[in-house]
């Protein structure tokens, strides 16, 4: 034990002596010399030879070194420019060395050495020869070789770096430049010398620290190297940015396909001439007419058919509607299961059974909310089942194929365009944020308005989409989004806008694909004719050929239809006009037999009828449970130009 302690003390004392410091300094791993030869061929390709002499001590350099080479360069526009990295030979101390390549983000990593062979500490010289294409810079007055000779991301310091650029025969050197330091630095701790008619040599004048590098540039006259044609450059730009091209092509295909599909199956049949009709078309019930006229209760018009069905049941003598202090109660006025139930239209029969069943009365309040919701659901399902496929077609298959095209184009973008992992994280973040905010606003909206849960789906979608857009805009403006840096540049911003537009196109046409059949269009025209009769003024109605004589019985018979079609006010005004023309002694006092309450005023039939419909609707809405309110959740710089990257030991 004493010997061990003495050894530790001796080792510590040695470590703090000058000799100890020297030994530790000598033991560090570093790049002693980094020599790069860039041989520019007449076709514009670069043959690059890198000779890297390292001191390996077994810390990071255990099997050998690795070299990262960028093959994707992000342009200010957001587009990418791709180059190549084609390894021709790899040696260590003049002997061929095992090596393999692995893809990394935006480039290639070349591993030199064997995974199962560890090399002893020593000084080694690695030589890498590779070809790289599409690196030449073509400008208006000159051409240029602009090359990051060492890369800026080595984990070791570089004691000395030398870069030599060999231009093709006949080149006239115009200018030279060099930059040293970290990425983006404009320092120039290097000297340049022209060592031949077409050769320039650069050498650093000080050590490069870890993550510092040497970048060099030489310009020469135009015409020596043939510049690619504009067509070739455009083809390369499309090929390099195939992911963006996939989005743009996908968006065009989606729009053309959805538009063509809509013109084929989604357009309404040609509208015919509408003539006034004096009877409900085809003997349909008020609720059925409302369902057809409003295209399956589109646009939030389901309440009209519900109220119309209630009033229709009242005029048939099946129930009464009692209203007191804005509380509505429906009461049975015949025996449960009476034979007349079989004479009811399917929708009204479903509503009657759902509301009352074997009971005598039902009050519209929250304690009966479940029964009200069940009755409403059965009522709507009955009408939809009876008339859905006959009068309308949804054409979902066409929309699904549009979604498939969009998904394929988005998948190709994510696979083919570099750096999309950040975008995926950003999009997920945006959608989660939008959904959370949207659902919270939906619950707040339901609490404030007392609206029924049926609005939650549409409201949640509307609020979520709005919140998603606002959050995305704010986060991109203030650069707080994980995807905001990725989406820098007009090309990527345009691509994301096109992607959103593609989704909006599908959503819009999915709605437009819902179209009436030929029979449905004809029925809608007949309903329009009947609605025209119910909505015109008394004078116009009297001028209609074959119009029936107006009477209280006719008014009450057609009142449910007027409510169903949203024209109860003009139809009630017709009754007022009819009664006003009668002598006071012969004028009857009208009060609906199915309604008992304070809302109806015989002196103002039109206003009272509208008020009754509004009272029923308000009572129904207030009986629905409110939300609990809980939430769910220019010049040049070091690192510029071609080449670059870095490396380390492994």
Which short descriptors sum up this protein?
650 residues; alpha+beta; Immunoglobulin-like; 8-stranded mixed sheet; 17 helices; 26 strands; elongated
Architecture overview:
With 650 residues, this protein is of the alpha+beta class. It folds into 3 domains: 29-229, Immunoglobulin-like; 281-394 and 516-623; 420-485, no CATH class. 43% of the residues lie in helices and 22% in strands. The strands form 6 sheets. An 8-stranded mixed sheet has the order 7-6-10-2-1-14-17-16, with no helix packed on it. The protein has a 5-stranded mixed sheet with strand order 8-9-3-26-13, with no helix packed on it. A hairpin with a 2-residue loop joins strand 19 and strand 20. Helix 10 (420-449) packs across helix 11 (456-477). It is elongated. The model is unreliable at 4-11, 13-25, 450-459 and 627-634 (pLDDT under 50).
Task: Compute the number of strand runs.
Answer: 26
Q: Low-confidence runs (pLDDT<50, min 5 residues)?
A: 4-11, 13-25, 450-459, 627-634
Q: Strand pairing plus helix content: what structural class?
A: alpha+beta
Approximately what portion of the residues adopt beta-strand conformation?
15-25%
Main sheet specs: 8 strands, mixed
Rg from Cα: 41 Å
Query: How many independent structural domains?
Result: 3
Mean pLDDT: 80
What fraction, in percent, of the residue positions are helical? 40-55%
Helices, by number, come to: 17
Describe the global form: elongated
The end-to-end span amounts to 37 Å
Strand order of the largest sheet: 7-6-10-2-1-14-17-16
